[in-house]
Specification:
By secondary structure, the protein is α/β, with parallel strands linked by helices. It has one domain (2-334): Alpha/Beta hydrolase fold, catalytic domain (Rossmann fold, 3-Layer(aba) Sandwich), CATH 3.40.50. Helix content is 34%, strand content 16%. A nine-stranded mixed beta sheet has the order 1-9-8-7-6-4-5-3-2, sandwiched between helices.
Length: 340
């Protein structure tokens, strides 16, 4: 394992900083995020899964001066392919082709009434998408929940994965094994139905951006809140409930020692994400979401891992400090030997 500590020096990001002006009206978007514009053209992969005809939305962005490599970007649970906007631009400028899908159950993709959600299934769906594009060797990169999915993909398809990149992945610990109580799906659905822009914004401010807020972040708040507020809000909430159950009950951390591909871990240490921590006892809660420790433990377990840490950043370093983040990302991508 190699480790880099990338301090921000004099930059101060404190919870006491005042929030910027926030939007007060929530837009209403369709169940497949109709009405919200993505930065690049959206294509549709039509396929059948679990006896259903589904469509998987994705962006496929080519580089003007291609270097022969493809990066697949996997969004987190409270994110969409659109939130990779800056990363797509910087990666394609550096010569990478970028595929950024919305997983089934999320954003512009189908939200089934009934689906057996699993990371295995979502990885299989993603592999089918890449196969339809005649792409068989990729760098797979995931943020948040997407990090869990990316690691599952690398475990399932090591011969088609040249590199694994995880950006503040959740699931670096097994919450249920550490004592977080299980939440029945009906209770989860009731909680999802209560979500609104204010609650989403408050959570993101404290967890994603270390108490700091920029006006540009409101776009991503409205992206999520607008789906809940729209006419298909019930279906959106139901799919979010089912995928939350997937995240909680399907840890990948126990298999990190079986990852066979070079792995780059990019970690904002101020992250405190831990699914279900609000249900945990005070004693258990104190042990959860400690990314300054979790990143190091993950890197120690993964056989060929490089760890880059930022002591002052939160859950979304690629959005919070994009220049710093992408410098480390591009350096980490370039260090992988793809000639063999």
């Amino acid at each position: 394992m190699s480790r880099v500590n990338a301090s921000l020096g004099a930059l101060v990001l404190g919870a006491a900083m005042p929030a910027a002006a926030e939007t007060t009206e929530t837009p209403e978007y369709g169940g497949e995020l109709e009405g919200f514009e993505y930065p690049y053209p959206v294509k549709r992969f039509q396929f059948t899964s679990q006896r259903q005809d589904l469509q998987m939305a994705y962006q496929d962005v080519a580089a003007e001066d291609p270097n022969g490599r493809t990066v697949v970007l996997l969004h987190g649970k409270n994110f969409c392919a659109a939130t990779w906007e800056d990363s797509i631009e910087r990666l394609t400028d550096a010569g990478y082709r970028v595929i950024a899908p919305d997983q089934i159950g999320f954003c512009k993709s189908t939200k089934p009434e009934a689906y057996q959600f699993s990371f295995h299934q979502l990885a299989s769906n993603t592999h089918a998408l890449l196969d339809s594009l005649d792409i068989d060797n990729v760098t797979i990169m995931g943020h948040s929940m997407g990090g869990m999915l990316a690691s599952r993909y690398a475990l399932m398809y090591p011969e088609q994965t040249e590199q694994l990149v995880m950006v503040n992945p959740i699931g670096l610990e097994d919450w249920k094994a550490k004592g977080v109580p299980y939440q029945p799906i009906d209770e989860g659905y009731a909680a999802e139905k209560k979500k609104d822009a204010e609650g989403i914004r408050n959570y993101q401010r404290s967890t994603y951006y270390v108490g700091h807020w920029e006006p540009g972040y409101d776009r991503w708040v409205n992206m999520l809140a607008g789906m809940y507020a729209g006419e298909d809000g019930d279906r959106v909430a139901w799919n979010q409930t089912l995928t939350s159950d997937m995240v909680f009950t399907q840890p990948v951390v126990h298999e990190f020692d079986r990852i066979q591909v070079p792995t780059l871990l990019l970690i904002g240490e101020k992250d405190n994400t831990a699914i279900g921590k609000g249900r945990a006892s005070d004693a258990v809660r104190q042990t959860l979401g400690r990314y300054e420790v979790l990143g190091e433990r993950a890197a120690e377990r993964i056989p060929d891992a490089t760890l880059v840490e930022w002591p002052d950043l939160g859950h979304s370093p690629h959005i919070q400090k994009p220049d710093l983040f992408h410098e480390a990302l591009l350096e980490g991508l370039a260090e992988v030997d793809t000639t063999h």
